[in-house]
Amino acid sequence: MAWYDEAVFYHIYPLGLSGAPKENHYGTPEHRLNTLIPWISHIKEIGCDAIYIGPLFESVGHGYETTDYKKLDSRLGTNEDLANYVAECHKQGIRVILDGVFNHTGRDFFAFEDIKKNREGSAYKDWYCNVNFWGNNQYNDGFSYENWGGYDLLVKLNQHNPAVRDYICDVIRFWVSEFDIDGIRLDAADVLDFNYMQALRAVANEVKPDFWLMGEVIHGDYTRWVNEGTLHSVTNYQLHKALYSGHNDHNYFEIAHTVKNLYAKGGNRPDGLKLYNFVDNHDVERIYTKLNKKEHFAPVHILLYTLPGVPSIYYGSEFGIEGRKERFSDDSLRPALSLSDYKDAIRENSFTRLIAALGKVRKNTPALSYGDYKELLLTNRQYAFSRNYNGESVLVTVNNDDSDYVMTLPAGNVSEYAGALSGERVTVSGGNIVINVKANAGDIWLPVSGSAAAQKEAQPVVLNISDAASRIKTSEKVQEVNITAESKARETSNSASKAKASDQVQAEKASEQKKEIPSAVQKDSEEFQKGRIAGLQEAILAIMEKNGPVTDQMRKDVLDNVYHDSLITWIKSFR
Description:
The chain contains 19 helices and 21 strands. The chain is of the alpha/beta class. It is globular, with a radius of gyration of 24 Å.
């Protein structure tokens, strides 16, 4: 068991939260990171005990075009500020992991600057991929190079070069010795060389006990990355997609199928595949914006905190704020917030109160961190499962329907259960428990015995949609805000972003053309409906292929999904 097995994460995009300028002029440090220190107690109060914060290091724009791996971004402050921030987190019992952008650097990085200056004579010409002094690039340097994602702003590192590996490994050692961090989230891990990641894992094992390596992986078989030789965990984009579309489509089958598939890949063991679960982050729309029915915020988060994996909350979403993707800008996903605007949120905002209650339950219920998973009931609109650990069985029930639903579930050798969110008590009879699950809600049922008894006095948590702090203005044009270019380079590379956006728009247009309805008769035709589904599936696969190799399992996941609205949502989920 390690600290991250029980962790609840809080994700911060610091340049956004602190209101930093979009462009870095490398001037006098501005100590904006210090403004995030008051957030630490708030993060603890809502039940989070780990922070994923980044990017933090010197860069020219959005943070992912690194200029200096060993210097805090001037817009955020100094290295001393970062050391003090981590120390304060540790003082309050909160672990800290940083963003490790080790796939590419910015053009102002010292090695690339040396190539621009000394060309063929540079000692660093092999630090980057495919440097060609007979070519050119959009910046007219008089040579070309392999970039990341089609953006010349992001220069791809040569991960096969031992000098590059040694340098990045020393960066990790520096971060631990200088700032005492507890782990790293590897940006773009799905395109990192596996030998490169193995070297990083070796350093992780060296620098600190239980030092955590988590990778950003969008598609593919997660077990390729999560194992003893590479990473401890990866971002669970499969569950992310299932959680919101499963509610928007009233299709709990999609969520249950995703969970069973991932759980099986971990050998059906609770410790087999510990994935980083989330419902929104700095690259995707806010969950409150995504949900067609805002009341589904409650069952979505109940599942986030109770399904196998490590849950994470993205800053501000605990208040119910909105944020849509826009063409060529992720600003609305990464807003500046003032904690003083939410100083009484746990008392006055039911969204925050729900998140805090879930954090408390998670912390006091080991079965939610270490228990096995067993599906108990499944319909399109109702879902129940158990998490069992050390003889204790915790039941989870959710309902996405507008009406209450009565469930009869096996309850084992327990005489009474208490709803951790509702405060209700239910007696077990004949080995079963009969529960009335409220409309668009859910609960976590704890045995009234042992460590779970502390929850029996729970105060009812009722979601009030009017509490949502919709501070971020949103567009009604869903098509425009969802088909966007890669987020990491759009602020400082608009021309390249437009090209990628155009590609994705064309992909959606192709799928829409397949959906055109020549007549009312054809609209109701079974064959026509099959054609619509097939067209959407082809469009999804086409976009996947642009992002990398499509495995048989990925193709199967797409073809197994035959729900029109779910497929539409899937297309919109691509960054």
